[in-house]
Design brief:
Elements lengths: L5 H8 L10 H4 L4 H26 L10 H28 L11 H13 L7 E5 L6 E4 L5 E5 H6 L2 H16 L3 H11 L3 H6 L1 H9 L1 H19 L2 H15 L7 H8 L9 H16 L3 H13 L1 H20 L1
Parallel strand pairs: 1-3
Antiparallel strand pairs: 2-3
Length: about 325
């Protein structure tokens, strides 16, 4: 057997690009693009107006400095996103390899991440960290290729297929390039008024794009549906995650499972009636949760959804033929 040079071996190990890939137009929720560009246009117009007023009022002095305003608009969101993610990145660096999902460290999650990333046609799989904190949550950082962070308490309350649906949802955000702006807007929500003013473009974006943050969840849910082919697990995990994060929710995971499995008819099962009441109360407390659950069912049955599921079927077939 002829031994290949190391460089050639590396090329042979690299997965080839799929001929069929999911595009943003295959799954993006209607209105997301319009929300983004309308708000961005307003930010640009406001910035141009401020620059124009400055040049008109101070045209004799301090003229060239107004040219920095477009730069301020362009770099504000990436800068704020960097500042928001920096403390968490420093924590991950301290945690090091024991918390990172590798081939030999959390292999089941590494395989899952590779599988979902291949289906999503990502150039590289995101990094993933499993950290030990009290609160159950999962979210992503906008590093190169993305970094998904999940806590051990979240894993404790979810079945493997439910956690896979959550990871697929995060991959949806990564693939759709939501992370920089979404993280920046979350950051300006929690800073003092002086920093809100300093990061003016992001603050304006935040004021204009409240509904965009809801819409991007619909888009990421669609990606999760396509990658996992499992609407039931996605519905379950949305409710379970909300219940786990709400300390006041009088609802345990067994009750959620019993309700979602329709264990008993409402007209004869008193326990099922009580579970329905608790879950309805939980859904009503969560902003936009009812609409999010409804959108999942609507996408599955829509013509747009059927076309997207047909395309992911072609992708799965092509991946199967590679083996």
């Amino acid at each position: 057997m002829v031994k290949l040079p190391r460089r050639v071996q590396k090329v042979h190990k690299k997965k080839r690009r799929l001929e069929v890939c999911l595009r943003l137009s295959d799954y993006q929720y209607p209105g997301e693009r319009q929300h983004y560009w309308t708000s961005t246009g307003v930010v640009v117009l406001v910035s141009v107006w401020i620059a124009g007023m400055g040049l008109w009022k101070f045209h004799d002095t301090w003229t060239y400095q107004w040219g920095y305003l477009p730069v301020w608009v362009l770099i504000s969101a990436p800068l704020v996103s960097y500042l928001a993610a920096r403390p968490r990145r420093q924590q991950l660096n301290k945690l090091g390899h024991p918390a990172k999902v590798w081939g030999s460290n959390y292999p089941q999650y590494g395989q899952m991440l590779t599988r979902l990333s291949r289906r999503a046609c990502l150039r590289q799989a995101p990094q993933m960290y499993i950290i030990n904190e009290d609160a159950p949550y999962i979210y992503s950082l906008p590093d190169r290729g993305g970094t998904i962070i999940a806590t051990k308490p979240l894993l404790d309350v979810l079945e493997p297929e439910e956690f896979e649906a959550l990871v697929a949802h995060e991959i949806g955000h990564i693939k759709s390039h939501h992370l920089h702006l979404e993280l920046a807007m979350t950051y300006v929500d929690n800073v003092n008024p002086m920093l809100k003013l300093a990061f003016g473009p992001v603050t304006i974006w935040r004021g204009l794009m409240g509904s965009w943050r809801d819409v991007i969840e619909y888009t990421a849910d669609r990606v999760a549906l396509l990658l996992t082919q499992d609407p039931a697990s996605l519905l379950r995990v949305i409710i379970k995650s909300a219940a786990a994060a709400d300390e006041q929710a009088d609802l345990d995971q067994d009750e959620i499972d019993a309700y979602l499995e329709a264990a008993g008819a409402l007209d004869t099962d008193a326990g099922q009636i009580e579970r329905l009441f608790k879950i309805s109360e939980l859904i009503n407390k969560q902003p936009n949760m009812r609409e999010r659950l409804q959108e999942i069912g609507q996408f599955v049955s829509s013509e747009e959804g059927k076309t997207a599921f047909g395309k992911i079927g072609e992708i799965l077939q092509e991946i199967t033929q590679e083996r």
